[in-house]
Specification:
One of its GO terms (molecular function) is amidophosphoribosyltransferase activity. Helices cover about 35% and strands about 25% of the residues. By secondary structure, the protein is of the alpha+beta class. A hairpin with a 4-residue loop joins strand 12 and strand 13. It is globular, with a radius of gyration of 23 Å. The structure holds 1-O-pyrophosphono-5-O-phosphono-alpha-D-ribofuranose, glutamine and magnesium ion. Magnesium ion (MG) binds next to loops.
Amino acid sequence: MCGIMGVVATTPVNQLLYDGLQVLQHRGQDAAGIATAEGGRFHMHKGPGLVRDVFRTRNMRNLIGNWGIAHCRYPTAGSAYNAAEAQPFYVNSPFGLMLAHNGNLTNAEQLRQDMFLQDLRHMNTNSDSEVLLNVLAHELQAASQNRYQVDPETIFQAVKGVQRRVRGAYAVVAMIAGYGLLAFRDPYGIRPLIIGRNDTAHGPEYLVASESVAIDTLGFKVLRDVEPGEAILIDTQGHFVSRQCAEKTLHAPCMFEYVYLARPDSLMDGVSVYETRVKMGEFLADKVRHTMPHLDIDAVIPIPDSSRPAAMELARCLDIPYREGFVKNRYIGRTFIMPGQASRRKSVRQKLNAIAQEFRGKNVMLVDDSIVRGTTSREIIMMAREAGAKKVYFASASPPVRHANVYGIDMPTRSELIAAFRNDEEICNEIGADGLIYQDIDALKAAVRELNPALVHFETSCFDGHYVTGDVSNEYLEHVEAARAKTGRSEDDADSAQLDLNLVQSD
Ligand SMILES: O=P(O)(O)OC[C@H]1O[C@H](OP(=O)(O)OP(=O)(O)O)[C@H](O)[C@@H]1O
Ligand SMILES: NC(=O)CC[C@H](N)C(=O)O
Ligand SMILES: [Mg+2]
């Protein structure tokens, strides 16, 4: 996943985009970029690192104009530390286009070939987002039939072309020079995208972002989610138009957004992410009650940050004290979205430290939102024991993660996933717990659906192996695994790149 944002305002947007990126930082810690426009010129600055490290005052000064887009990256395609893959991406023709993408295309390789052989387009990175931009450029070129002025009809036509050709997950913000902001979402609405509006004395301003938290904090009002398959256009004068561009849609938002990716204070598909996590806690408590009735637990302890709402509710429903047993170092980022297993493992220890008094002589139930590679759970259980816990039970607010994710979460190889080839008992042994309990998939779906019954389908492939877009075969998954092994984006490479980056940053 990544964080994306686009804005058309009545005053300069550089600070607004920077502040918004800070709020979306949890969606991507690898690279960041901002592009703005004024008087037919684009201005851009992007690079590897956290938002606060990428932008200096001198960069901000150059980002002039009242409209722009921004991106923070958590890579899924291409390589982790290639600065060239930071977004937004730019092509000069037709009109001049900038694009930022959240998601992952499942037919990027085919498209890359088509682009080269049929459309004679060169791509300079391994990023699927660059492919997506070039498809958009090609379709816009075709729809505009060499007219030098672009209008909404032509743009919608181009997005329809993109929807026809591109497979996978994509939430997109793009700038079209001479027109304004374009935003669209894939026909399944896998990755989130929401619109906000701010009425000023000089007219309305619009903001499109991955999560509503950006809209709230920047003083806009949430208007609505961008519909799956829908494209919206806001010209530089603030005129808003929208159109359904997909032939067929099936709303199936990514379940992992509710479980872990999104901030709890965000609203997605009309549902509070926080409330879904509380519900997950309630349903997990039901399962604990039924499957482990004789458990003797002194305290329920969350693994900060994401599991807190679920752990709190689980404790309340089981009538067991909820205690904070780990303190989080607020200066360490999210470990799951860090590339490289060694840096993730080290970061867990740097990030979380046990409060010994909360563990000494006690039976504890640790709660996390998910167990993916098992890095966090393994380390945390060891820490609880080192702190003197008698028994350590582990509960996961989501089911075992057994399958690769191909829609924008970096879980492409099954060999990395602790649950891929193990049953619950083996996983329990592997993480060193005295007991392990997982949420059921139906309970997880119910946790979100109870809050919005209109949400019938979900993208839950990492839990159940069902890929909503219908084009993900076993051959494709094996191909992705093999490509990952071959491109050398190995865990070790990512680790050393992380070190290099840190050295550069601390210079
Ligand atoms: O099994 P693993 O591979 O370790 O992945 C799962 C863990 O990673 C995430 O935490 P993270 O530290 O990324 O973020 P958080 O502070 O938002 O919980 C998630 O909340 C789990 O704790
Ligand atoms: N996680 C994402 O959404 C990443 C977007 C894009 N696939 C990239 O690798 O940069
Ligand atoms: Mg966590």
